[in-house]
Amino acid sequence: MQHQARLIVSYDGSDKSYVLWNGTESYYKKLRAAYTDIVNDKESEYLYFGFFTLCAATLEYSLNTVLTDYCVNKFGHENYKSYAEGYVNISFAKKLLMSPHIISDGVFQFNENNSSYKNLLELIALRNKILHNKEFLKEIEFPSIADNLDKEKIEFVLIKEPDPIDKLSKDVCLKFGKSLGDFKKFIMDPAFVNAFTENEMVKRIP
């Protein structure tokens, strides 16, 4: 498999040479394979969850790669790391939101009305709920035992809200997969080849 890379080369050997690998294609290759299985209705208890978590991992790795590459270009290989670490450690949702603004030096921002951008925000929010799910006590309405001592049975109904993981479906997964493909097409790939311009996902800041 071929990988893109950013090379910083010392032609005369007087300094160190560096490479920044863009290994995101390994992630996208696996996403395309899983996407095809979902389209073809392959039955699997874990397929939707596996695809969803792969989407989240691919998006974050893509963002980290683009932002690090920007810092190398902007600040040079000797000074880039502290800037890159600052950007990649931003919260996931903020990192997505800020990425076009950062890599365009304040020229572009996301088109907040773009459906793929909205879907990626939804992906991040659902990812946080699923991967960091937790339970605490919830108050319930329970009939008084003292008022029902003459009854052999006390009947009541407990209604549980759906677990976040149960929101994953074929349509949801395909929606996230398509949106991640748009991110690769309109954000990641152009940024890595220094051809980042206005498109349907990003707009010029007024």
What does this structure look like?
The chain has one domain. The protein starts with a strand and ends with a strand. Helices cover 51% and strands 8% of the residues. α2 packs parallel to α6. The model has no long low-confidence stretch (mean pLDDT 90). The chain is built from 6 helices and 4 strands. The chain has 206 residues and is mainly alpha-helical. The protein is elongated. Strands 1-2 form a two-stranded antiparallel ribbon.
Largest sheet: 2 strands, antiparallel
User: Considering DSSP H and I runs of 4 or more, what fraction of the residues is helical?
Assistant: 40-55%
| Structural class by sheet pairing and helices | mainly alpha
Tell me, rounded to a whole number, the average pLDDT.
90
Q: Find the count of extended strands (DSSP E, 2+ residues).
A: 4
Which residues form runs of ≥5 with pLDDT under 50? none
Which value, in Å, is the CA radius of gyration? 23 Å
Helical segment tally?
6
| Neighbour order of strands in the largest sheet | 1-2
What is the terminal-to-terminal distance? 41 Å
What form results from the Cα inertia axes? Answer: elongated
What's the order of the H and E elements? EEHHHHEHHE
- Domain module count: 1
